[in-house]
Amino acid sequence: MSHIHPAWPTGFAGYTGHGGLRDSGDDISVVVSDRPAVSAAMFTRSLFAGPAVTLSRTHAAGRRLRAVVTLAQNANVATGRQGEENAAEVAGRVAAVLGIPVGEVLIGSTGVIGRPLPMDTIRAHFDAAADRGPAAFTAGPLDVARAMMTTDTRPKTAERAVGGARLVGVAKGVGMLEPDMATMLAYVLTDAALSPAELDTALRAAVDRSFHCLSVDTDTSTSDTVAVIANGAAGPVDPGEFAAALADLCLDLTLQLARDGEGATKLLRVTVEHAADPAQARRVAKSVVNSPLVKTAVHGADPNWGRVLMAIGKNTDETSISPDKVTVRFGTTEVYPDEPGPGTLADLTAAMRKDEVDIVVGLGLGQAAATVYGCDLSAGYIRVNADYTT
Fold this sequence. Notes:
The protein is an alpha+beta fold. Helix content is 34%, strand content 26%.
């Protein structure tokens, strides 16, 4: 279960403040370990990856990240050489405030594309933070998650325990969600002691089962970043147990992101089972969860199983799929090929009015399965994105 007010694991501290990126409210956050740490990270594969991502890729390659700074409301993407210099300056200023090498700082930047960072106000902000020193680092995970928000309606945090160690995660993201290598912005801090290789293996497995299975609108962000930092303050833990805890925490954050999708009113969970292999199961599941017609049917509580068949059928490269082997269930009720009667149809409509809707597709080809997560499509999504920069 998520904890609504988790505290940082041993050795970590947080900071939030207003740096002029938005009109009001905290828009800059920093999380740092008070001792050296090891890390693993994954990033978007977008061709328009922003300077925060390209710089962080370089820093993350050393697997010794110790701090994360996030700028909200401005992605600093498509801003040319100046954007690169600004990202490097922000990382450098954070490193100077913390007294650590700049190569140990990861930077995340999220929000509007194509606008330069307001460096004058950001510089003044970090100058003031430097004057305050350690006394400025009083923000908890909930504060940091809130400062990271853009169009999110609520902050997203989660925590788990393994052995004598804890894992705490913070995340943001509600739109432009169709991850390729990671997800929006998500950071996991832990006081467990692991090797960089163990951490990297655990992170990739966790992302593959969680953030890789999330979609709100099929659009991949230019700024997607997920990282885990381990400072070892709580001592060694079993790597397998840690990997399971990390995967569970990441799935928790994934579900929070899906439920808070822009304009969303329902969590949509699509499972494809009896596929030939896991990749096929995920491809077909994604085609269903991403279908605007399926998503609007879910929003309207309309058990229109024909739209699910359409979404399966458009996978024209999946030549092994045969309509006479396919089954479709809404929840536990089969709707294809055995169409429900009038009474059952009323029950289905009632079930689809719930906050969570499950669609299960059987392909009849093998034993592989995959579950993906998304949300319904409402007029609210259109409104949020039609007015985003104006």
